Amino acid sequence: MAGRVEGKVALITGAAEGIGAASARALGAEGAKLVLTDINDNGVKSLAAELERDGAAAIGLRHDVSDEAGWESVMAATLSRFGRLDVLVNNAGIAFVGPTAETSLADWRRMLAVNLDGVFLGTKYAIRAMAGEGGSIINVSSILGIDGAATAAAYCASKGGVRLFTKSVALECGEAGNGIRVNSIHPGYIHTSMFDSDVAAFGSLEAKMKKVSALHPIGRIGQPAEIAAGVVFLASDESSFMTGSELVIDGGYTAR
Ligand code: NAI
C-alpha cells in the first residue's frame, strides 16, 4: 500500500532532534523523500543516514534558517538531488524567557531572526521551487502564537508573527492560483530539549513538568510524535481543503 505522502519531496528545518526529527521519521515512514537541515550538521546527517537504512531517500544539510544565502544553496541541493519540492516544514526555532525590561536588543533580534525571518525566507524560496506544481508549506508556530505568556514576549511576538504571516501567504497563494497551501501548527508544551533546557524559573525539571503539565487539560505535556502526526496530515493530500488554517495540537491548553 502506498504511503500517505508517497513520492513527495519534503524539506524539514531544525530536523536534528525534537519535533523536526519526529516529523522526518513520520514523513519518511509514509513514503516521503527527505531533505533534513539544521545548524547541527552531525545530528542531521546521522538522522538522514538512519532513515536511508530504513529505506527512505534522505539527505542532511548544514543550514542556518536565518541566512538567506543558505536557503538558496539548500533549495539548489534539493532540486539537484530530487528534482522538485512538495512540502516545506518550517520547524527550526529557539526559545528563551526573561523580563522584557531585561531583554537585550541582540537577543530580541536573534529570536526574530530564527523564528520569523527563517519562516519568511523558507516560504519565499519554497514558493519559487514549487512554482507550477503546487505544494504544502507548514509553519511551526506555538500555543504562544495564539496566547500571550509572561516573560515570553519575544517568543510570543515571533510565533504570533508566524501565525499571521501564514494566513497572509495562504491568501496570496490562493489569489495566485498556484496550488500552494500554507498552514500553521500550534503545539502545546512538547517534551524536547527546548522544554528540558529552560528550568531556572521552576527550580527543577520535575517541578517544571508538574506545573506545566497542569496547564494542559489532558493532564500531561505532549510528545514530538504527536506533532509529527499533524505535520504528516498537512503534508498529505488528506488536508487538500486546508489553507490559511491553524492546526492546534495542545492537549486543550488554548481551550481555557
Ligand atoms: P529543539 O530545541 O528540540 O530542536 C530545535 C532544532 O532546531 C535543533 O535541532 C536545533 O539545532 C535547530 N535550530 C536551532 N536554531 C536553528 C537555526 N538558526 N537554523 C537551523 N536550525 C536551527 O526544539 P523543538 O521543541 O523540537 O521545537 C521545534 C519547533 O517547535 C520550534 O519552532 C519551537 O518553537 C516549536 N514549539 C516547540 C514547543 C515545545 O514545547 N517544545 C511548543 C510549541 C512550539
Key terms for this structure?
256 residues; alpha/beta; Rossmann fold; 7-stranded parallel beta sheet; globular; binds 1,4-dihydronicotinamide adenine dinucleotide
Explain the layout of strands and helices.
Elements: E1 9-13, H1 18-29, E2 33-38, H2 41-53, E3 58-62, H3 68-82, E4 87-90, H4 105-130, E5 135-140, H5 153-176, E6 180-187, H6 193-196, H7 205-213, H8 224-235, E7 246-249
Parallel strand pairs: 1-2, 1-4, 2-3, 4-5, 5-6, 6-7
Helix pairs in contact: 1-8, 3-4, 4-5
Q: Can you characterise this structure?
A:
With about 260 residues, this protein is α/β, with parallel strands linked by helices. The protein has eight helices and seven strands. The protein is globular and about 50 Å long. The termini are far apart. 1,4-dihydronicotinamide adenine dinucleotide binds next to helix 1 and helix 6.
Write a short abstract of this structure.
This protein has 8 helices and 7 strands.
User: What is the distance, rounded to the nearest whole angstrom, between the alpha carbons of the first and last residues?
Assistant: 41 Å
Portion of residues within helices? 40-55%
Shape: globular
Q: In the residues, how many domains can be counted? A: 2
Please indicate the percent range of residues in DSSP E strands (runs of 2 or more): 5-15%
> Largest beta sheet, briefly?
7 strands, parallel
DSSP helix count?
A: 8
Would you tell me which CATH topology of the largest domain applies? Rossmann fold
**Helix- and strand-based class?**
alpha/beta
Low-pLDDT ranges: none
